[in-house]
Amino acid sequence: NNYEYLIVERQAAVGLIRLNRPKMLNALSFGVFREIATAIDELEADDAIGCIVLTGNEKAFAAGADIKEMQPKTFIDMFNADFHTIGGNRVTTCRKPTIAAVSGYALGGGCELAMMCDFIIASDTAKFGQPEITLGTIPGIGGTQRLTRAIGKAKAMDLCLTGRMMDAAEAERAGLVSRVVPADKLMEETMAAAEKIAAMSRPAAAMAKDAVNRAFETTLSEGMSVERDLFHATFALEDRAEGMAAFIEKRPATIRNR
Ligand code: HXC
């Protein structure tokens, strides 16, 4: 596929999607969201790929939805186009594990896009925020919902109502990001994590991802029930039998993704 706003690469078993609108701090236009959905389709269908990394550049992961594109739009324009439907939701429906590697600004739709990934690794320069309120609007693809579940009501309210930015250290304390690494190590560390994940049993990784994501959606008893069923289901995997046999025999496991 040819992309106007993205660079999509494959590095061994990892699919790398780079937002590539550097002059606009990777502002997320409708076209960008459409291309992200296409890139996820492409990488998800590729059997060689076991994990997907979404990133921007050093200065910005993404500084939000494209304000210049949005400014003239009316209710019915936004209602009909719907960011959530055209692209946002496609990241969350991806069955392969996804990691957001965030350096610089992850604001508005950028913060929301990062939160759609399974987890976020941040560089020490990362800044997260939901500044929509300063534009007279509110977050539209998860900034009041995923953020609140991720970091709790107090901080989510603070960010959504003041529009202030949170630095990487605060984001890590709050539980928004899984790790903070020096800026010049961000891609190295993220790609290493992605390669590690891609080398795991793919169906086991998909089930683990599903189960954790379910915790975000549902009650504890429902989630426990889903986890139990998926855990039992892993006993139908050849990879599970082989993984445990390899441990006992003190040898590396041969993963077959089945
Ligand atoms: C369009 C943007 C943009 C955006 C930056 N640019 N963010 N264009 N949409 N979201 C453009 C600027 O206009 C400028 O273009 C160029 O990128 C560089 O930005 P500067 O502002 O000059 O950079 P700097 O001074 O370093 O400031 C960085 C910044 C600031 C603090 C991140 O750009 C900023 O506040 N951006 C907007 C952040 C924001 O409000 N995001 C939320 C959007 S609403 P020119 O042509 O002047 O050089 C949203 C709703 C989501 O995301 C709803 C669902 C998707």
Automatic annotation (TrEMBL):
Known catalytic reactions: a 4-saturated-(3S)-3-hydroxyacyl-CoA = a (3E)-enoyl-CoA + H2O; a (3S)-3-hydroxyacyl-CoA = a (2E)-enoyl-CoA + H2O
Regions that span the bilayer: none
Molecular functions (GO terms): enoyl-CoA hydratase activity
Keyword field: Fatty acid metabolism, Lipid metabolism, Lyase
Highest taxon of the lineage: Bacteria
Protein EC: 4.2.1.17
CDD domains (UniProt xref): crotonase-like (cd06558)
Keyword Protease: no
Single GO biological process annotation from the record: fatty acid beta-oxidation
InterPro entries registered for this protein in UniProt: ClpP/crotonase-like_dom_sf, Enoyl-CoA_hyd/isom_CS, Enoyl-CoA_hydra/iso, Enoyl-CoA_hydra_C
Protein name: enoyl-CoA hydratase
